[in-house]
C-alpha cells in the first residue's frame, strides 16, 4: 500500500466519516453538508475509494453473516467506519515467514505489539483484522479448533470473519470473549477488562462468573475485581480509532493518559494535583495543539521541552 500524506490521511478519515453518516438515521439532515464537501474533486475521489473498499468488504461479510440479532441503527454507521479504518490500515499480513513472528515461538503463535505513540493494524490469516492501540501487546494462536487472541495489555478493535467451526476467542485480564462474525473492542487493564460491542454478538465470561453474558450492539461490559456489569456504551466510544474522544467532566489526568497513547508530542503535568481538573468537550487526541487548547480551557501555562515533551503547569501571576 502506498503511504499517504498527512493531508491524505485526514481526507480518508473524513471520507470514512461521511460514508458512515450518509448511511445513518440522520443522513437527510447531513445531505447538504455532504454535497458541499463532495464538490471538492479530491474529496470525491477519497469517497469513491471508501465505497470501493466497503463494497468489497460488504459482499464478503454478507456471505459469512451468521444468524442472530441485527445491529442497531445507531451503531451500524459506526461499525462501518470501524471496519473501513481497519481495512485501510491493515497492511501487515500475518502469514508464515512474517517479520513479526518471534524467532523462538512455534509457527502457530504470533506476538504483536505497538509502541506507545502508534496504532498498528494487521490482517489475520482467516480474514479477520485487529487494530492495536498505542502501548498494546497481544498474541495470536490459531489451531484447527479455535482462533485464540490473548490481549496482554492495551486496547484493540477486532473485525472478525465468521467461521462456525472455529470460534474466535479473546482472553484479557481474566475475561473470555467469544465472537461470532462481529466488530468489538477489548481493553485489558491492571484490575480487569472492558468489552464494547459495535456489531454482531459476543459472549463474555468474567472471572468467577457463573455463566457468560451476551452483549447487544451499543453495550459494554466492565469486568473488574471479580464482578461484571453490562452498561450502555459511552457516547462516540466507537471513534477512538479516529483519535477522537468525547469527554464529560473527565479528569485531566485520564485525558492526558489517553492522549499520550496517540502519535505526537507527549503531554505531562507539572503538578499531579492538576490531574483532578475536569474537562468536557470533543477532542482529537492526535491534534498537535491539544495541549494549547487544554491550557486555554483550564487557564494553564504550556512549557515545551526538548524531546517533544509538552508540560502543562499552573500560571505564574
TrEMBL record:
InterPro entries registered for this protein in UniProt: FecR (IPR006860), FecR_N (IPR032623), Ferrdict_sens_TM (IPR012373)
Record bears the keyword Hydrolase: no
Gene Ontology molecular function: any one: sigma factor antagonist activity
Keyword annotations of the record: Membrane, Transmembrane, Transmembrane helix
Protein name: Transmembrane sensor
Residues of the FecR protein domain: 113-202
Spans through the membrane: 78-101
Domain of life from the UniProt record: Bacteria
Pfam family, one: FecR
Residue ranges annotated for the FecR N-terminal domain, each copy included: 14-53
Keyword Membrane: yes
